[in-house]
Amino acid sequence: MTETMEGEKHKTDLKVCIVKVKEEYHVDQARREAMEMAVKIGFDKSASHAIGTSVTELATNLVFYAVNGGTIFIRSVAKENRVGIEVVSEDFGPGIEDVKAAMQDGYSTGGGLGGGLPGINRLMDEFEIVSNMGMGTKIITRKWKK
User: Fold this and answer.
1) pLDDT of 57-113, one tens digit each?
2) Taking CA 99 as the corner, what is the angle to CA 2 and CA 138, rounded to the nearest 5 degrees?
């Protein structure tokens, strides 16, 4: 399913799902879409929940830090003899001033516990972040089916 800013859903195939995230209720929609795709790909319950938790953190960051929200892209991926899921979070917000610090447990610019980005890095198999001040942030994560 594809989620628009207005909350309308459109059918899509297993391979790609796009969720526009601007309001808090979009966070749960993104999580549900990711977990649904994870199950269809064949991830077990534990891995599906790890993916869902990661998407929840990514989408929550879009709501609270990206000014006008952003987009979560979820797709199935294959590489060599592996299948997995890729989750990309993208916004055109203010950017992350100090990415290295943001990746440390306990660091927060918003008064939280500072476990979001480091937690996503631990839960997913691959994690990449690119952030430019005044231009936005793109986070690419992947989890491979074991």
Assistant:
1) 999 999 988 889 999 999 999 998 899 999 999 999 899 888 887 878 666 666 665
2) 20
- Which residue bears the tokens 């927060």? 108
Computed over its alpha carbons, how large is the radius of gyration of the chain? 14
DSSP for the chain, please give it: -EE-TT--EE---TTEEEEEE-SHHHHHHHHHHHHHHHHHHT--HHHHHHHHHHHHHHHHHHHHHSSS-EEEEEEEEEETTEEEEEEEEEE-SS--S-HHHHTSTT--SSSS-S-HHHHHHHHSSEEEEEEETTTEEEEEEEEE--
Report residue 102 as tokens: 């943001």
Lookup: tokens for 44:
């077990």
Q: Contact at 8 Å (CB) between 50 and 38?
A: no
Structure tokens at 109: 């610019």
Please state, in angstroms and rounded to a whole number, the distance separating the CA atoms of residues 4 and 88.
Answer: 16
> Which of 129, 138, 131, 31 shows the shortest CA–CA distance to 85?
31
